Amino acid sequence: MPEAAHPAVQLQRIQFTGGLLYDENGTLYRNVNPEEPTYVGPPSPDIDAEWEALIHDRYTPLTSSEAFSIGLESFSLPRKQSYWAGVDVFHSLHCINYVRMVLDLDYYGDRLDPLPIRRLHVDHLRQAVQCSGDLTPVPERWDNVSNMLYWDFEVPRTCRNFQALRSWQDKRVEQMMI
């Protein structure tokens, strides 16, 4: 499967958004692009729907040769295919969504797993971030209105095109389920 995903990998330059800035009164606010989906904020069905659109169909069926190439053993499932795996970007996004839900226990409490599984999500994200090792410089800047320093996370980065990966996953699931 890793080789099968290679054609979907495209690089693009992305300007990160969502950094914290100061308004004219020195109050912090989150800088958002209103044309982009909202993934954080007070819990709501709209935010949940955006996350579902992002991480749906995290797992895909594999051919026997793909499964063999990654050392996967067959097991029986009530599905058409015997081998399943997921590209880690979708699992990592699932973990981020899970951590987001843990921040609002009153709203999501009945949907959350036991504590050991919650901690697993955090450790998976730690390892994924260490693995990717993004070397983009994040500068510290001075805000003249508030007379305070802030970290400017809204810097351009070279990223894999996530929409291309999402499209690849969607097409693959559709084709393999036929």
Structural class, from helix and strand content?
A: alpha+beta
- Mean of residue pLDDT values: 88
Helix content class = 40-55%
Strand order of the largest sheet: 1-8
Provide a count of the helices.
7
Largest sheet: 2 strands, antiparallel
Distance between the termini: 18 Å
Question: SSE order in H/E notation?
Answer: HEEEHEHEHHHEEEH
Beta strand %: 15-25%
Alpha-carbon Rg, integer: 20 Å
Extended strand count? 8
Uncertain stretches of 5 or more adjacent residues: none
Number of separate structural domains: 1
| Backbone shape | globular
Notes on the structure:
This protein has 178 residues and is α+β, with helices and mostly antiparallel strands. It has one domain (2-176). Helix content is 41%, strand content 17%. The chain has seven helices and eight strands, in the order αβββαβαβαααβββα. The chain has helices spanning 2-5, 45-55, 64-69, 88-102, 105-108, 115-132, 162-176, and strands at 11-15, 20-22, 28-30, 59-61, 84-86, 140-143, 148-151, 156-160. The strands form four sheets. It has a two-stranded antiparallel sheet. The chain has a two-stranded antiparallel sheet with strand order 2-3. A hairpin with a 4-residue loop joins β6 and β7 (148-151). α4 (88-102) packs across α6 (115-132). The longest helix has 18 residues, at 115-132. The protein is globular and about 60 Å long. The mean pLDDT is 88.
